[in-house]
């Protein structure tokens, strides 16, 4: 593991194992998160937050495989066990215990006001559970159990991070200075639009994304379904399927190629079949190294177990120390 002459700034980030990572996850977040491990001033802990995943409907028979798949994809995307630590959240029970302690000092009314909770209630009306309501409290415990100072997040997670800061402040006020107030680290990730032409790629809509493990034929088939127009117009579309294609061209074939297509769109017209075919190949070629690395780890289950064991041993030492400090200050030790 990396060493530094000064105490490094701790970073924590986690992803739910609710499906395969897609281009949006990778370019919009994971790639930026993993770049942080290259900086000596950071001590990075990355997690598969499987306890968060079960607050939504899931299949317990498939869930262990989903967890394992996310571990493989983290490693395939470039997590370096010599520079960062990889853990599975449920393997470190201190997360849950600290979350319970936090739940005794935080008001239910504040949790009910969170927009993400309201959205989840609307999207899964038959699966509204206590875990869903207290999701942000467990998220706070995930971060504060390691006294993380920086948290890579998307803008949609900023309300949850502010709640984490509120919990840290309240605990410190009630029981004495214990936790830092973590700051958001907004990585400069790319916005990857949905293949439907509406919004961004999302795990909740399988038709919206290209996953990191898709083969060339699958990518071709998915791009073939992206809605288009006649291929010619007076103005470059800023929304819809054509805008999605132009964005993907820029991300995977470069800005010059996008400008080339835009000129054609405003003049003689674009043949989308050719564009989609070339784009599919460019995306597949970009994903090949990730898929090859995933297969490398897939063939070495013991190596993966060793990486997790090392990461969890490192993380649990910190977690146990933090939990004991919190319990002592609360009069429980």
Describe the protein's architecture and organization:
This protein is mostly helical and 333 residues long. It has two domains: 9-190 and 300-329, 3-Layer(aba) Sandwich (Rossmann fold), CATH 3.40.50.620; 214-294, Tyrosyl-Transfer RNA Synthetase, CATH 1.10.240. It has helices spanning 23-35, 50-53, 63-77, 94-103, 108-112, 115-123, 130-133, 135-144, 158-175, 216-224, 240-253, 255-266, 272-298, 301-329, and strands at 9-15, 42-48, 84-88, 150-152, 183-185. It has a three-stranded parallel β-sheet. α3 crosses α13 (272-298) and α8 (135-144) packs across α9. The longest helix has 29 residues, at 301-329. The chain is globular. The mean pLDDT is 93.
In short:
This protein has helices at residues 23-35, 50-53, 63-77, 94-103, 108-112, 115-123, 130-133, 135-144, 158-175, 216-224, 240-253, 255-266, 272-298, 301-329, and strands at residues 9-15, 42-48, 84-88, 150-152, 183-185.
What fold name goes in the CATH topology slot of the largest domain?
A: Rossmann fold
Mean pLDDT: 93
From the spread of the alpha carbons, the general shape counts as: globular
Parts with pLDDT < 50 across at least 5 consecutive residues: none
Question: How large is the radius of gyration?
Answer: 22 Å
The total number of structural domains is 2
User: The biggest beta sheet, please?
Assistant: 3 strands, parallel
**Structural class based on helices, strands and sheet pairing:** mainly alpha
Quick one: CATH superfamily of the largest domain? HUPs
- The proportion of strand residues reads 5-15%
What percentage of residues falls in helices of 4 or more residues? 40-55%
Count all strands and give the number: 5
Question: What is the CA-CA span between the terminal residues?
Answer: 33 Å
CATH architecture group name of the largest domain: 3-Layer(aba) Sandwich
Strand order of the largest sheet: 1-2-3
Q: What is the highest CATH level, the class of the largest domain?
A: Alpha Beta
Number of helices in the DSSP assignment: 14
Order of helices and strands: EHEHHEHHHHHEHEHHHHH
């Amino acid at each position: 593991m990396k060493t530094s002459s000064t105490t490094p700034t701790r970073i924590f980030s986690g992803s739910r194992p609710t499906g395969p990572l897609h281009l949006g996850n990778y370019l919009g977040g994971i790639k930026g998160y993993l770049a942080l491990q290259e900086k000596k001033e950071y001590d990075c802990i990355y997690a598969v937050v499987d306890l968060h995943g079960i607050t939504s409907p899931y299949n317990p028979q498939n869930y262990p495989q989903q967890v394992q798949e996310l571990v493989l994809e983290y490693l395939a995307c470039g997590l370096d066990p010599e520079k960062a630590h990889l853990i599975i959240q449920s393997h470190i029970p201190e997360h849950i215990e600290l979350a319970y302690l936090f739940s005794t000092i935080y008001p239910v009314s504040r949790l009910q006001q969170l927009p993400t909770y309201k959205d989840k209630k609307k999207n899964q009306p038959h699966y509204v559970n206590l875990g869903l309501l207290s999701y942000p409290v467990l998220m706070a415990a995930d971060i504060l159990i390691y006294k993380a100072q920086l948290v890579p997040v998307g803008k949609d997670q900023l309300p949850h991070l502010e709640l984490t800061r509120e919990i840290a402040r309240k605990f410190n006020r009630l029981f004495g200075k214990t936790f830092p107030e973590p700051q958001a680290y907004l990585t400069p990730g790319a916005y990857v639009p949905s293949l439907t032409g509406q919004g961004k790629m999302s795990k909740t809509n399988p038709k919206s994304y290209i996953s990191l493990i898709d083969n060339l034929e699958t990518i071709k088939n998915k791009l073939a379904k992206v809605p288009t127009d006649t291929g010619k117009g007076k103005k470059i579309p800023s929304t819809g399927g054509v805008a999605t294609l132009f964005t993907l061209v820029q991300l995977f074939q470069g800005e010059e190629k996008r400008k080339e297509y835009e000129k054609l769109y405003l003049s003689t017209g674009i043949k989308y079949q050719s564009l989609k075919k070339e784009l599919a190949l460019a995306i597949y070629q970009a994903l090949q190294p990730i898929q090859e690395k995933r297969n490398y780890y897939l063939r070495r289950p013991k190596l993966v177990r060793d990486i997790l064991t090392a990461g969890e041993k490192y993380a649990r030492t910190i977690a146990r120390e933090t939990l004991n400090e919190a319990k002592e200050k609360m009069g429980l030790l």
